[in-house]
Amino acid sequence: MKIGIIGAGQLGRMLALAGYPLGLRFVFVDQSEDAPGAQVGRIICGAFDDETKLAQLADEVDVITFDVENVPVEAVRGIAARKAFLPPVSALGASQDRLHEKTLFARLKIPTPPFAAVDTFDDLQKAAREIGVPGVLKTRRLGYDGRGQRLIRKMSDLDEAWQTLGSVPLIYEGFVDFSREVSLIGVRSTTGETRFYPLSANTHEGGILRYSVAPYRNAPLQKQAEQYLKRLFKHFDYAGVLTVEFFVKRGRLIANEMAPRVHNSGHWTIEGAHTSQFENHIRAILGLPLGSTSPIGHSAMVNFIGELPTLRNILRIPGVHFHSYGKEPRPNRKLGHCTVVAASAGARDRALRQLLRLKSA
Ligand code: AMP
Questions:
Q1: Which of the chain's ends, N or C, has fewer CB atoms near its CB within 10 Å?
Q2: Residues with Cβ within 6 A of ligand 1?
């Protein structure tokens, strides 16, 4: 069996690494011929909206998936009509526009921060008055890792934010004074079999995920988050891995966003769960039995952003697992990550502190 992946970033690379032991082969479409996926599969070099290259990919694989959300929906409709394309195009489309995504959450009774569409400066003033400040102004499309957002602390911040972001459709959201951020990763097979990983607690810095700790044990929140993902699974008739990021405020979940793909906050599952999110994604889109999502111990995952510590210093940490994505260092670029899996939460937290010190060294 051959799997086609649109996008050959680190997520695509880790999908292929998980699939090789199962005897699967991988081909990617990516604009860059030396993207991380090139180390583990062939890249058909082309833009995500290059329908000729996408058709070429479709011709040679059994199922198509993607490792990025900015794959233009219109460009993939053709291949999705004649080849299995999973997760469904509808889920990809919903995740690309923060306004559609939040409107869908609201329809499915998944709590969100208060939000309003902003197309004019008047809309922005009205939204900030009605929803209140502080708030966050975000581009509806193509925002990720904190890009395309402005924190609005007071009404007088609106002008500057509008100057910076106002050329594209926007969304204004109430600022959530959260006690923590968590994500739930679920997986649903084409057969309908569904499993969930334990919640992961995520710490962002400058809008980018710095580290995750899992399992984050909180039975009521786990149950609530699973119910929300089940609604999304049903809505989309979903297959593959789905991630939803939530804020936790006063013991309740507020959905921030969904990603119809494997997720950075689930990298710990490679060593910290019986079956990784990557392997389960592949099993799910092929209709194979899913693997256990149970954690093996207490995991922490730390991202290396902008620069990598030396290999020698990383490997000095007992029990560390290191993943380098083979990318050129650049500010704010995710270059690799480390995971530790410990027998107790205390031992995990000690190892996490070591890893974080390494990062800033
Ligand atoms: P996003 O790109 O929407 O995932 O935002 C990146 C990060 O910015 C989130 O993980 C939060 O830490 C923060 N953030 C985004 N939206 C809000 C909000 N409405 N209230 C508080 N913090 C937010």
A1: C
A2: 113, 136, 143, 146, 173, 175-176, 181, 204, 207, 245, 256-257
Query: How far does residue 256's CA lie from ligand 1's centre (Å)?
Result: 7
The tokens describing 176, both together, are 């959530």
Distance 178 CA to ligand 1 centre (A): 10
Burial 71-96 (b: 16+ CB within 10 A, else e): beeebbeebbeebbbbbbbbbbbbbb
Contact 295, 275 (CB under 8 A): no
Mutate to test the pocket of ligand 1, among 131, 256, 257, 334 (most ligand atoms within 8 A of CB): 256
Query: Class of the 180-357 domain?
Result: alpha beta
Q: Model confidence over 192-224: pLDDT tens digits?
A: 999 999 999 999 998 899 999 999 999 999 999
Whole-number Å distance between alpha carbons of 52 and 30: 13
CB atoms within 10 A of CB 353: 11
Q: How far apart are CA 85 and CA 77, in angstroms?
A: 9
User: What would the pLDDT profile of 175-195 be if each residue is shown by its tens digit?
Assistant: 999 999 999 999 999 999 999
Contacts of 154 (CB under 8 A, 6+ apart): 133, 134
Kindly report each contact of residues 315-324 with a partner whose C-beta sits within 8 Å and lies 24 or more positions away, as own/partner.
Answer: 317/351, 317/354, 317/355, 317/358, 318/351, 319/351, 320/351, 320/355, 321/270, 321/271, 323/10, 323/14, 323/267, 323/270
Atom of ligand 1 nearest to the CA of 256: 3
Within 10 Å of residue 2's Cβ, how many Cβ atoms? 14
May I ask the CATH class of domain 2-85?
alpha beta
Give the span between the Cα atoms of 32 and 13, in whole angstroms. 14
* Sequence ranges of the domains in the chain: 2-85, 114-174, 180-357
Query: Whole-prediction pTM value?
Result: 0.96
- Ligand 1 centroid to Cα of residue 145, in Å, is 9
Helix (H) or strand (E) holding 185: strand 180-188
Q: 265 C-alpha vs ligand 1 centroid, how far in Å?
A: 15
Give me the CATH topology for the region 114-174: Dna Ligase; domain 1 (3.30.1490)
